[in-house]
Amino acid sequence: MRVLFFAQIKDAIGMAELDLPVTLELNDVALWNELITAQPKLAVFKSSTRLARNGEYADQATIFCNTDEVALIPPVSGG
Predict the structure, then answer these.
(1) Per the domain annotation, does 61 fall within a domain?
(2) Could you tell me if residue 30 is inside a domain?
(3) pTM for this prediction
(4) Fewest C-beta in 10 Å: which of 6, 19, 20, 33?
(5) Which sign, positive or negative, has the C-alpha torsion 33, 39, 40, 42?
(6) Which candidate, 48, 63, 45, 55, places its Cα nearest to that of 9?
């Protein structure tokens, strides 16, 4: 699974993307557990970050698999 990071998340973990090997299909909770295990600094972003799967926002019913591209979308503010 290719995982993309943006803005403050990218800055906090020091990378723009991560290859996360997963062997099972994961719901959003399981995916977050895998992500935090791989990059513990992601834990602080969990409550404020949206997940997107293959270019579309994910919800609680979304199932993620190894061939997906997942983006972590931080909150956006504008002026």
Answers:
(1) yes
(2) yes
(3) 0.92
(4) 19
(5) negative
(6) 45
User: Cα(17)–Cα(51) distance, rounded to whole angstroms?
Assistant: 14
The label of the residue with tokens 């791989």 reads 38
Domain count, the chain: 1
Give residue 24's domain range: 2-73
Token readout for 23 is 């062997």
CATH number for the domain including 48? 3.10.20.30
Asked whether residue 79 is assigned to any structural domain, the reply reads no
- How far apart CA 31 and CA 64 sit, in angstroms, is 7
**Hey, which residues does 3 pair with through a beta bridge?**
18, 70
Residue 37: Cβ-neighbour burial (10 angstroms; 0-12, 13-18, 19+): exposed
Cα–Cα distance, 13 to 18 (Å, whole number)? 10
